[in-house]
Amino acid sequence: MNKSILLATIFEKGSYPKTTVPEVTLCGRSNCGKSSFLNAILGIKGVAKVSSKPGKTASINFYNLSNKLVITDLPGYGYAKANWELREKWKILVEDYIFNREQLKLAIILADVRRGIEEEEIDLINLFMGRGIKVLIVLTKTDKLSHSALLRTKADTLAQISNLWQDMKHRVFFTSSLKKTGITEVKKALEGIVKTK
How many domains does the chain have? Predict the structure, then answer.
C-alpha cells in the first residue's frame, strides 16, 4: 500500500466519491495527532496537513491507497476554536457519512496517549460497533511519555478497554508518528481489511 492520492475533499453530505473498495475512517479529538498518523500510514510526507490549531479540518478527505482501500479523514471533534455554526455543520456531515456510507468497514479511533480514552471516544466506539463496523483504537504520541509512564498508561488503558469491551484488547495500538512506533502493526491490520473485503 505505497501509492496514495487525495481522491476527494467533501464539505457537504451525500456528495461522496463513487468507490467500490472498502473504506477505513479515522476519528479523533482535535489535535490528537490524526494528521501526523495519517501521513505515517500513507508513507508520504505532508499529504494530510498538520496544524497546531485545533478544529482546522472542516471536511472529509478521501485518500485512495493503490485502488485497494480508501482512508477517510473525519473532522476532529472537541472543536475548542470553532464556532457553533461550524460545529453543527461538521456534526451533520460526519453523522451522515457514518450512517449512510455502505463502503465503510472499519473505524480507527485515535486519542492522545496522555489524555487516554474518554467519554467521547467511548461514545464513538459504541456508535460504530452498533452499526456493525469494526473498530481499532490507536493511542498516539507515545514519544511524549517516559518509558515507565508509558508502561503504566498501557496497562491502565488495556484494563479500561477490557472492562468496557471484552474482545477489544487485541485491537489496541500504541503509536508514535515521530518515531514510527506501532505504525507497521496498524498497516498489517489494514491489509487484513483489504484481504477480507
Answer: 1
DSSP-assigned letter for residue 45: T
CB 186 within 8 A of CB 194: no
Contacts of 110 (CB under 8 A, 6+ apart): 26, 27, 28, 29, 32, 33, 34, 37, 138, 139, 140
The β-bridge partners of 24 are 71, 106
What residue has cell string 486519542? 111
- State the residue for C-alpha cell 489494514: 190
Long-range own/partner contacts, residues 181-189 (CB < 8 A, 24 or more apart)? 181/142, 181/143, 182/138, 182/142, 183/40, 183/41, 186/41, 186/108, 186/136, 186/138, 187/1, 187/41, 189/136
Q: Which residue has the cell 495500538?
A: 173
Domain containing residue 60: 4-195
Q: What is the pTM of this model?
A: 0.88
pLDDT digits (tens, 9 = 90+) for 152-181: 999 999 999 999 998 898 999 999 999 999
More confident residue, 81 or 14: 14
Distances in Å between the alpha carbon of 19 and those of 1, 36, 63, 127?
A: 17, 25, 11, 24
CATH number, position 185? 3.40.50.300
Backbone angles phi, psi at 176, to 5 degrees: -135, 115
